[in-house]
Amino acid sequence: MNPDIPLQLLGGLTAREFLRDYWQKKPLLVRQAFTDFESPIDPDELAGLALEEEVESRLVLEHGERPWELRRGPFNEDDFATLPERDWTLLVQAVDQFVPEVAELLENFRFLPSWRIDDVMISYAAPGGSVGPHFDNYDVFLLQGHGTRNWKVGQMCNSESKLLEHADLRILAEFEQTEEWSLEPGDMLYLPPRLAHFGVAEDNCLTYSVGFRAPSAAEVLTHFTDFLSQFLPDEERYSDADAQPVSDPHQIQHDALDRLKALLAEHMGDERLLLTWFGQFMTEPRYPEQVAGDELSEEELIDSLEQGAILIRNPSARLAWSEVDDNLLLFASGQSRLLPGHLRDLLKLICAADALHIENLVEWLRDDEGRTLVCQLVQQGSLGFANE
Ligand code: SIN
Ligand code: CO
User: Fold this and answer.
1) Which one of the ligands is nearest to 130 CA?
2) How does pLDDT run across 99-135, given as a tens digit for each residue?
3) Helices (H), ranges, the chain
4) Per-residue pLDDT for 289 more than 80?
5) What would the pLDDT profile of 130-172 be if each residue is shown by its tens digit?
6) From 207, 210, 212, mutation site for ligand 1 pocket: most ligand atoms within 8 A of C-beta
7) Shared domain check, 184 and 78
8) Contact 158, 240 (CB under 8 A)
9) pLDDT at 64
10) How many domains does the chain have?
11) 259: in domain
12) Are residues 97 and 183 in contact, defined by beta-carbon separation less than 8 angstroms?
């Protein structure tokens, strides 16, 4: 994707301009980011998904049994039949993993790393429906799918911002409105992390949230050090072979800190392990049970492809690749593989994985490492046959 071509999605800004001026900084309203936008899913289909065990869904009722009542799915038909006329919202997470036409929307966001994308959440609201004024710690593109939603944006927040006392929902106690817009189908609003926002349905409306993910510093530290510690033998310890006689045996001297800092720096600075951990962490699937493998041999795989079978990325799998020296690392659903540099184009093809078929794979299937890789990814469940 050329970063200097103006994009309708970004209201005529180029990806480079958008990233420079708006991304993680300030909101951007784009009228008709998608012209003649037709929602690929309707409210009934969304409600249907919320009946499924494997799909994460929530209902927020402004005037339920208590103010801002949160109900968690899966739901049943009766739950929907007994909802009031207005002031409620049904939210369904990761619809892109279940509806391919929704996943296709993500193609428009390819100017950002795919491993930064979390999911496409879709909400359906009755008139007046809202989840209350709040902030998220993530970037989000809010695309109006159907009906009209009024969006207000407010102040920048942080973990000190006052919230209503509520066991499950993080609703802001104070909202200092700065701007307000009504979004029609095809309009889109980008919000940076921590900006207060408050969306209220003006009629029956569907809103798509393309949400991003960024690990917290606390997550990076705990998960990376956990990962690192697997490689550290027990005998590797704080050591002070350079110790000098102490003047007060009860004092912790700063030379002890220097030794600790050196120990930390040695391991924390291991770029290869950091990359391996990060790739694995960022490709961990949201629903691991949806990444189920297929026990097939290399011969069976080639037979199927020769008979016209097409492989695609499992919509629940996450894929990414990187370079280490002359080699490559492929990350697939939380696992990593070190591969020789000549497989670079295969890795790119696999990560894009719109359709892998005998024509674009033929050369790679003749390569021992290439063939084994494709087969392992099918066995692991990151790739699957399109018609299954
Ligand atoms: C919604 O779609 O109702 C809420 C989305 C959000 O504010 O994050
Ligand atoms: Co939000």
Assistant:
1) 1
2) 999 999 999 999 999 999 999 999 999 999 999 999 9
3) 15-21, 43-49, 77-81, 100-104, 217-229, 254-268, 271-282, 298-306, 344-352, 358-365, 368-380
4) yes
5) 999 999 999 999 999 999 999 999 999 999 999 999 888 999 9
6) 207
7) yes
8) no
9) 87
10) 2
11) no
12) no
Q: 131 with 198: CB under 8 angstroms?
A: no
Could you tell me the pTM of the whole model?
0.95
Last residue of a domain, one of 212, 233, 259: 212
Range of the domain at 161: 8-212
Q: Are residues 171 and 315 in the same domain?
A: no
- What does the alpha-carbon distance between residue 376 and residue 162 come to, in Å, rounded to a whole number? 50
Asked if residue 163 belongs to a domain, the reply is: yes
Find the 187 Cα to ligand 1 centroid distance in Å: 15
Domain boundary pick from 159, 193, 212: 212
On whether the CB atoms of residues 140 and 123 are closer than 8 A, the answer is: no
Report the relative pairing of strands 327-332 and 335-340 from DSSP bridges.
Answer: antiparallel
Ligand 2 center to 284 CA (angstroms): 23
Regarding whether 173 and 64 lie in a shared domain, the answer is yes
- Over the Cα atoms of the chain, what is R_g? 25
The CATH number linked to 57 is 2.60.120.650
Q: What is the 3-state secondary structure (H, E, C) of 276-297?
A: HHHHHHHCCCCCHHHCCCCCCC
Structure confidence at residue 269 (pLDDT): 93
Whether residues 199 and 300 fall in one domain: no
What the block records as the tokens of 201 is 């349905």
Nearest CA to ligand 1 atom 4: 131
Output the domain CATH number for residue 367: 3.40.366.30
